[in-house]
Amino acid sequence: MSTKNWPHNGHGASDPGRDRDDLAVGRSSVDTHHHEPDEHTRLLPNRVDSTSISYLSPDDPAVSPYNLWTVRLVRAITVIFTCLTFIWWVLMLVSVFVTPPGLHARGSPFFAFSYTTIALITLITSLLFFAVPSQPARVVSIVTAALLLVDVVMMLAVEKTRHEELWVGVASVIWATLMAVWAVAADRTVQNVLTLGWNCQWGKTEEEERLTGRPETRRTLLEWVQVLLSSIMLTLVSIVVLLTTCTLTLRALDARVAPPGERYWVDEDKYQIHLFCSGPKVDAHGNRTTTVLFEGGEDAVERELWQFADNAVKNGSIARYCFADRPGIAWSDAAPSPLSASMASDVLSQALSRAGEEGPWVLASAGIGSLYSRVFSSRHGQEVRGLLMIDPLHEDLLGRVGAPGRGFRLWLQGVLSPCGLDRIPAAILRHRSARDRIYGGSAYQSGGVIFAKLQESLVANSLTRRDVVSSRTIQYKTTPVVVVTSGVQMRKDSEWESKQRDLTHLTSNLENWDIVDQAPHQVWRTLEGREMIEKRLRRNLKGFILPNILFPLSGLMPEQGLHFVVDDGVASKTLTSQSSQPRAVHDLPHLEHDKNIKHADDAAKQAGSTTVRDLYLDKPSFAWKSLDVRGFKVTAYL
């Protein structure tokens, strides 16, 4: 076709060939008044000149990936995921203080809370910098997702972690993994949108080419700041996930250590309590052995008191002992919140019952553990033969345990506990063993112990104080009591001394109040303290088993008083009963103790009988009788 049929561009006509070229590259030319080039014509066109080409500036707000419906859809889904994660995060936060039904974790709620926080931060970061995708952010998110996947496998593969985290922890780590993968996909979507079919449509790049004429490789200062912030935030999240993976690995390694004794289901089979007993249940005469039930203070019994109890058995101070870990301590599962002293006492009773342990008991407790023992004693008065309290905490001082500042520090420490900021260096640099982390010097770093102390703090000045005050009212007043106090603690705290004195009036039957001058709060850590505790177990508390020996009285007239002089080879005491009713001696209101009366040698005129019944049942003609009963020399006379 001849070009002469076409008008010249200079006369206002358009060039069809140029229009076709513009259409081929996706441009819409507005150059309808083309002039012949001269010395003033640009060699390179100005693409931001609206008079020649209709392209936009790269800084124009209209140049945005949000113009694509797929990008808008992905962002809307991310917003929905963020809202759901925030709701779950709030539930995990609340479960630390009050456990909602069905959301109990037997380990501690801190791991589930940590994974939920990771998911929430990942999604918030994705939303904040949604329009500024970057390769470093995607790489870091991929690493985070891979580490979280390792956590999922580890949590499901190890039976103990699966038992402790339950569905709450498993669901939280799976959700965090999925959200990390979604963040990578969302970031990639902004850069590269896959549509239906085989066509590939570039999101941000395609919009830049369509609106500015070419893809932009440069970034504005604001965009670089956004890329930097997103990379920093996601890198911190990845580091937290790495530390959490290391902590979870330590938990998996600790699971190889089997607990001594057994674990028993309590509280309608919600969690398990660890219980350990050592020694024969019955003696050579077939009588039930009095068991010393140890209750730990600020630390687990296994840390130091366990060794002390073993030595006491070897030294003959006691014949049998048991101890149970409170919920969250050592090998016991964490209990739902809140957890007061009475609740802990109830689950201990359940564990003892399921283990077939019936007592009688001598309760030996230390520090704050004395509060739990006192509540237990008030509810099992007939089975409790005595109380030995080692530098006990008074209920009036529970305000220190429940101080808001202490509670906040425990909560913050619990939130950070999955990172293992102290456990990991201790394991690597100080070579801490699994037993150290379970009940030893590093046990305070575990989430379970921190959660147990936080539970203790939350109800210390309310529910627990109410329980202890009530227990003092209903405590058997004839129960023998021994108090061993730290001299160091008394000198440091004048209020501590007055409260120790008040505890000596817990019942009307104070056996001894000993002050170990150079001993710290953990009295057994000094030789003098250990010897004093064993001395009281041997001299005083051993006499608590007498009421279990002396069977119901009968055949005695009210005016006839039956007297027992008991000698354990160290000291003597007199028990006097003035009742003719068939009741156990320890239940008699007229039972009197006199530690000043010594055993009279001429009181025993003969020996030989092997049963206590021969002393007093229907034989008022017996004036004197003496025999050995379970290591005691008992002389009875009217």
TrEMBL record:
Recorded hits in InterPro entries, A to Z, give: AB_hydrolase_fold, DUF2417
**UniProt entry tagged with the keyword Transmembrane:** yes
Q: What stretches pass through the bilayer? A: 73-98, 110-132, 138-158, 165-185, 224-250
Q: Where is this region: Disordered?
A: 1-42
What segments bear the compositional bias annotation Basic and acidic residues?
16-42
Q: Which Pfam families match?
A: DUF2417
Q: Is Ribosomal protein among this UniProt entry's keywords? A: no
Alphabetically list the UniProt keywords.
Membrane, Transmembrane, Transmembrane helix
- What protein does this entry describe? Uncharacterized protein
